[in-house]
Write a structure and sequence with these properties.
With 463 residues, the protein is of the alpha+beta class. The chain folds into 2 domains: 6-201 and 373-459, Aminopeptidase (3-Layer(aba) Sandwich), CATH 3.40.630; 203-258 and 304-371, Alpha-Beta Plaits. The chain has helices spanning 6-27, 39-56, 126-143, 163-172, 220-223, 230-239, 263-271, 276-283, 296-302, 342-356, 381-393, 407-416, 441-459; strands at 59-63, 70-75, 83-89, 109-111, 116-118, 149-155, 181-184, 196-201, 203-212, 218-219, 305-313, 323-324, 327-336, 362-371, 374-375, 398-402, 420-422, 438-440. A 6-stranded mixed β-sheet has the order 1-2-6-3-7-17, with helices on both faces. A 4-stranded antiparallel β-sheet has the order 11-13-9-14. A hairpin with a 4-residue loop joins strand 4 and strand 5 (116-118).
């Protein structure tokens, strides 16, 4: 076996410029899954990735679905050794607003003396998941074999609901994807040079509600004060969702199933040395705010939240237009924690909105999608191998939770019955979902080396 992986590391060092060029080609494809006008680009991206898998030495194919294709590759020549399934997604968020990008979003640009690669998808998730493939490819190129069996599944709908992979994983029931561990890199390190093992993801209930008033916009001078204004009604409903002083969510029953933080979690979070002032400065706010009685990290990682994601209604053009609008609406996401049931919370939200709506308007509530809460184990030989691999490249990882959601993770854990390792190579300032998204080039290369170390360490287990 190869206890130190130095043979592959030397190859990575020689070829890293080529790896970066390949990633840039990958990022040039605008694989926006939420917008049907990009469907041909999404398929082109899937085909690009399939060819890169084949060039790396994997048996690769597209798995067609009712939505976007899945890209699957495998190398299973290590008889009697464990199997690792790497998960990622090749689709990206829309680039809007385009005017806030320093360069075109799908023309990758090296900035900060070549230290950062800026493009949509650089860290979410093309850059991170491409590191998996390059690690596997470097090992096969150097040795002609792998120390363990490897499978890669990369989907094209993570940013738009993930229905295709959800359906495939449940239908496949482990026949194709059966493994001993799942490795996912779609998250951030705790801080630069300090990796983390992510063991908790929040669930989601994504809602929309629409407030309908008169059958048309009305002249506010002729009708104002005599009909309920949907914009005013929208404001009243939104104001009823939170206590403005304590940050507590006011939906009856919302907290009934919330599992309290464990004492060890609060201790470990506190020991991370989170810099409140630096965080405020980095996102341009004068102060943090949130649920009373909890720290900023506890609120972000382990307490449920409710946020308005967008709202509309009435005239929004230049100048003045004096109307009572006929309708208004809002989109709201709720991030949930153990042991909340997303479907139940969605119903509680809908009931509350209907009760809070003032007389004179009608309200329609829509649940767009839900995803379950994920809480993973952080012990065992496979987990230890992953932690040790991260320490080999950076330093000993810390255990953290995350306020975001990766819907397929819960399904993979349930269906495959294998430990899921959530180990990201991104950083909190990578601006994912925002203009000028980037990945640190050093982290891209570090991620490749870390995967190599993990596979070598896993191959040595019991041997």
């Amino acid at each position: 076996m190869h206890p130190d992986s130095q043979d592959v590391f030397r190859r990575i060092e020689r070829e890293q410029g080529t790896y970066l060029e390949e990633l840039e080609d990958y990022l040039r494809i605008p694989s926006v899954s939420t917008d049907p006008s990009f469907d041909s680009d999404v398929r082109r991206c899937a085909e690009f990735l399939r060819e890169r898998m084949r060039q790396a030495g994997l048996d690769a194919k597209l798995i067609e679905s009712d939505g976007k294709p899945l890209v699957y590759g495998e190398w299973t020549g290590a008889e009697g050794k464990p199997t690792v399934l790497f998960y990622g997604h090749y689709d990206v968020q829309p680039a809007d607003p385009l005017e806030l990008w320093r360069n075109p979003p799908f023309e990758p640009t090296l900035e900060n003396d070549g230290k950062q690669l800026v493009a949509r998808g650089a860290t979410d998730d093309k850059g991170q998941s491409y590191a998996h493939l390059k690690a596997v490819g470097a090992m096969l190129a150097e040795r002609g074999e792998l120390p363990v069996n490897v499978k890669l599944i990369v989907e094209g709908e993570e940013e738009s609901g993930g229905e295709a992979i959800e359906s495939f994983v449940r239908r496949d029931a482990g026949e194709t994807l059966g493994c001993d561990a799942v490795f996912v890199s779609d998250s951030a390190m705790y801080e630069k040079g300090r990796p983390s093992m992510l063991y908790g993801l929040k669930g989601m209930a994504y809602m929309e509600f629409r407030v309908q008033g008169p059958n048309r916009d009305l002249h506010s001078g002729s009708f104002g004060g005599s009909v309920q204004n949907p914009g005013n009604a929208l404001g009243a409903i939104l104001a009823s969702l939170h206590d403005a002083e304590t940050g507590r969510i006011l939906i009856p029953g919302f907290y009934d199933r919330v599992r309290p933080l464990e004492d060890w979690e609060r201790s470990e979070f506190a020991a991370l040395g989170f810099d409140e002032a630096a965080d405020q400065d980095s996102i341009g706010i004068p102060a943090h705010f949130g649920e009373e009685g909890y720290t900023t990290l506890e609120r972000r990682w382990a307490r449920p939240t409710l946020d308005v994601n967008g709202m509309w209604g009435g005239y929004q053009g230049e100048g003045a237009k004096t109307i009572v609008p006929s309708f208004a609406g809002a989109k709201v996401s709720m991030r949930l924690v153990p042991d909340q049931d997303p479907a139940e919370v969605a119903e509680l939200f809908a009931d509350h909105v209907r009760r809070a709506a003032p007389a004179g308007v009608q309200v329609e509530v829509i649940c767009h999608h839900t995803s379950p809460v994920v809480l993973l184990e952080t012990e065992g030989p496979i987990v230890d191998a992953a932690l040790a691999a991260m320490a080999d490249i950076w330093q000993q990882p810390v255990r953290v939770r995350e306020g975001g959601s990766i819907p397929i993770v819960a399904t993979l854990a349930e269906v495959l019955g294998a430990p899921v390792l959530l180990i990201g190579f991104g950083l909190s300032d990578d601006r994912l979902h925002s203009p000028n998204e980037k990945i640190d080039v050093e982290n891209f290369y570090g991620g490749i080396r870390a995967v190599v170390r993990f596979l070598d360490r896993l191959g040595n287990l019991g041997g």
